[in-house]
Each structure stands twice: as C-alpha cells, then as structure tokens.
What does this fold into?
Amino acid sequence: MPNALINETSPYLLQHADNPVAWQPWSQEVFARARLLDKPVLVSIGYAACHWCHVMAHESFEQPEIARVMNDLFICVKVDREERPDVDGIYMQAVQALTGHGGWPLNVFLTPDGRPFYGGTYFPPDDRRGMPAWPRVLEAVADAYRNRKGDIQRNAELLTRQLRATAEPPQSVGEPTLETLENAHAGIVEVHDADNGGFGRAPKFPHAMVLEFLLRVHARTGNPQPLEVVKGSLEAMARGGIYDHLGGGFHRYSVDDSWLVPHFEKMLYDNGLLASVYVQAYQVTGDDFFKRVARETLDYVLRSLRHPEGGFFSSQDADSEGHEGKHYVWTPDEIEAALGEDGARAFNAYYGVTRQGNFEGKNILHTRDNPEAARPGNDAPFERVRASRERLLNHRFTRIPPGTDDKVLTGWNALALRALAEAAAAFDDARYSREAERNAGFLLEHLYVNGRLLRTWKDGRARLKGYLEDYALLVNALISLHEATFGHRWLREASRLTDEMLRLFWDEEAGVLYDVGADHERLVVRPREYTDNAVPSGSAAAAEALVRLGRITGDAGLTRKAVRLFQGITPLIARYPLSFGNWLKALELHLAPSTEVAIIGARASEDTRGLQRTLFGRYHPNRVFVGWDPSEREPIASPVLEGREMVRGRATAYVCHAYACSLPTTDPAVLERQLRA
It folds into this structure.
C-alpha cells in the first residue's frame, strides 16, 4: 500500500507525502482495511508549524528502516490537527488519560474499530533521556496486539468509556451570577505573574481571552486591579521577544517567564485574538502604544498571511533552513552591515542587542530592559529607530523565510476578521474595513458550499464539514463586521448561520452543543470540547454569539439557549478560570447591564462617522449596536432599530440603558455623555 498523501490539500500532510511510510489520510476505508487485515492503526497527528513534528519526521518517518517496521506492523494514518480538531481532540484526551500529558506530534495506537489503547507524543529514534526508542515502541505495541489481544481490547474499552463520559452533558445548576465572575476574577489574579506579566510560569502563553475578560470586569466594576493586570501583561508581551519587533505579530508562546525567548511559530489565531485585545486596551486607556501594537499585528497578517483572493493562511513555521528562529535573530555585525555604525549603535541600544546575544549566540530583539521604550505615551525613542527598523525588516525579507501553511481555515479566519472589524471601528480606518469585508466575502463565497459551511480551503478546493467553532466564530465576526460597516448583509448572514448551527449541533434534550454536526461521520465519541484552549471552544463562542444575536434580534429563544450552556459550565469556571476565558467573556456580556445603541445615517457621511468615532473610540464591551444606512432598503428586524430615523436629515444616535432610552441626538458630545450615564 503506497503513501497516499500526495492528493491532500493540507500542507502538513503534503510535507509527509514523500516519506517511505505508507501514510493514509483519515478515512473510513482505512479502518475497513484494518479490520480486514486485523491490524492496529497508528494515527500520527501534528500541524505544519510544529517544530517537534518536523524533528520526529526527520529522525523516524524519513528513515527507510523505521518506515519498513511501521508499514509491516500497522496501518499508518496522518492527520492535520488543524483540519480535523475532532480527531485530534478525541485522541489527545486519550493520550492525556494514559500518560498525564499531551502535545504534538501526537502518536496514538487504535484497534481497527477506532478505539485507542496506547499512545504518546514525541518518540526519539533511539533510547534517550528516559524516552523509549520509536522502533522499540512499535515492536512492543505490535507484540501486545498479536499476543495479548484480550488485554488490548479491555484497555481500549475502558479508555473509550472514559472518553464517552467526558463528552456527556454536565448536570445543570442554577443560573450563574455575578459572584461566579468575581470568583473567577480572584482566581485569575491569584496566578498573575506580577513581575513579568501574564499568568503562571514558563512556558507562558498569552491567554488573550482571559485578558479580555479582565477588561470587561474593569469596565463593569471600575476596579483598577484587573486593568493593571491587563496593561502589565500586554506591555510585557509587546516588549519581549514573543513579539516580532520588525515585522509585527506574535509568536506562539514564550519558553521563559519574561517573554524573551519564543517558540517562533506564528499562528493566525493568536494574532487575531491578541490584536483584538490590544485594540480594546487602546479603547480603555487611550495609550497609543497599544494601538501601534494592534496595527503592526494586523499589518503582519495582511502582509504575510493573506491569500490574493482574501482568505488568510493558517501559520508560519518556527524553523527556516532547518533551524528554529533563524529568520528572526541577529548578530551585531549583521545589523551594522545593514544600518551603518551610528544607526546600529542606536538600534542595538534600543532593542537590547549585545555581542554575547540572548539566543544561541544571536539576538532576539526586545525592549524589556529599556526604560525609555517602556514609558507610556513617550514615542520619541521609538521614532528615532523607526527608519532603522524598516531598513532591517527589508533586509530580513532577503532571507529564506519560514514555511507558510497556506490552507485557509474558516474559524481561524473569523478571529482575524473580527479583529480587523474591531480595529476598523476603533481606529476609524477604512482600510481595515475593506479588508474585513473582503475576507468575509471570501469565506461566504468559497467556504459555504451547497448549504453547508466547510472547514478548510486551499488551491481552490474547499472540503471537510465545518465544526461548531467555525460556525460560532464566524457569526461573532459577522456581527462585529456589521458594527464597523453598518452592512445588514452581515447580520442576515449571521442569523442564517446561527439557525444552521443550532440545527446541526444543538441537543435540545441535553441543552448542549456538540463540536461536530448531526451530518458528521460517526466517531468513537461525538466530541464536545468545553474548555477554551488556543482558540475559543465552539460552545463558548456559540454562547457569546447567541447572547449578541439574541439582543440584536430580540429573539429570547437564543438567549435561553445561551443560559442553558452557561448553566452546564458554571461549576468549572471558578475552579479553572484560565481554561475558560471565552466562557467568562461571554458570561460577563450576559450578566452585565447592557446598553443599546442605534446610529441612523449615511455610512460615508462625516456626521455619521463623527457619531461612530464617539461610540467606538471608547470601550463599551456590553454595548448592543445596530447601525442603519437608510440607503440599504432591507434592514434586519431589530428592536434596537424600531421606530428609529434620522432627525432633521442628520445622522442620529439613540442610546438606551436596559431599554430605558435617552433622547435622540445628532451631537457627538451629547452621545458621549449619554454613553457615560
């Protein structure tokens, strides 16, 4: 049986298409063949930007002798976790249950009916530092399957039962209260790293959703503590090496406590989520530092991850030319050759460049030890190195770049789309608005096929049925896009996708949403991931979308479904708040007092834009906004718009707090006072 990956669209699978391993893509036919031959199935899961996936591929999967063992003993299946989060989620839980930890590459052994019985993550080609050699693991697993099949079947059944139990709907409790949010806030602050920003110890992840929740707590309560946590964390990250100081955008995570040394891969979802938080931090504080970081992050996405037709690519690799981080690090001599002696001296002082370096003898640029760069509101030091920074970036473009995973994923694109829409509104930036609309048009044209949202697109081919996260994240993005553009097309699409989402994923009896639709292939478990990981869980994103759209349309049924979702998750939120950032954000939106705002006016007119600048220039996280340009003849039905019209031919704003309304106004200053009321 030959390697069958050459016809796949996933860049990760295509990276393995020349392996001597007889890799097969995930399919029901693979398992039918395994049953026919009575062979165990080896499923190896990773993604294109995964450093250790590349290492294991080079050490083991590219080696003919190891490949021969794999081919003789197993049916070998390769899975891109980004295309198939359902498969990844099920078997990651299994490996975590078996070993106590998980990660990628994920290598799991299954019975021919798909039940897991053994697995792990990275295995070296020979015994090393307590890790067994991959060939030895292969031989041992195959021997156990041949000679102790009863034990294998019992282990597989026990593990599968455990997986099914975790997917069972939780027992509902009473409706959550503000006390739930306060307990979660206290738990988050308890693990805040006051010295370095962020939460916990290394490796440190950005936790963008948690930071957004803290901004909402500050807005509701006026408590300065959560705002200080957010400001300190965002400043520390943007001054550390996790941030790309030349090209903009954030790397995946930091391997140290102080955000200096990153794992160098860049993911679309991280940059979408973080751009949103930096936009919001600017709205709260008015600090142009946060605005600059948000712009540089979005500009990185538009420059380096944009398909010419409007979709966004998934990631850029950590490695280039076989070395992690090589594209991003510098020696003083390289900098001096590009900038000259005087320019290099100033640049090196600003970005902490030294002869000894801070990463394998080279330098990761950072400003964390530069007190001038840390001073809020003081852009003069940065302006002195701006031109040098641009010259060095142009020089970096001449290097061999890291590989780009050029598949377009619906849910991840939705995170970038939402960030662009939020920046367009907050910064009054028409360029971001155009790019957001272009991306939304691409997704709805190319990834909505025959009445079904799909997961992935590459080279003109859309495939794989979309998951709950794809629907929910896109609904939220389209609502935000309406706010930036007034376009009611986006609200109509959001409403239609919400109806489909509930039809495909909602279980009325249990009051939960599953991650895969009712039309999905049958797996050993119907997965339901409820924790927020690198991206919002589908259920948390859906709860937020249901609350937002329910308020816009006045559909109480949507809100009731959101409440049922909250009831099921509340017992876990206060115990593990870092794992429920988007749930907390959505629950804050549901519980906090709401403000309803309508603006009626021609979208392009200056009087409309003046009102819009007033509304979006400040942070109003619990605002329900519907705009309407009267030239659009068919607005969506919404109680927020009911009876609203322009006053004396001028753009007019209507503000209601919990549906108690102020007088309409055409004056931005009056609107500002009404919003503060």
Observations:
- The longest helix spans residues 332-351.
- The mean pLDDT is 95.
- The chain has four domains: 11-167, 184-322+404-591, 328-396, 595-676.
- The CA atoms of residues 405 and 657 lie 46 Å apart.
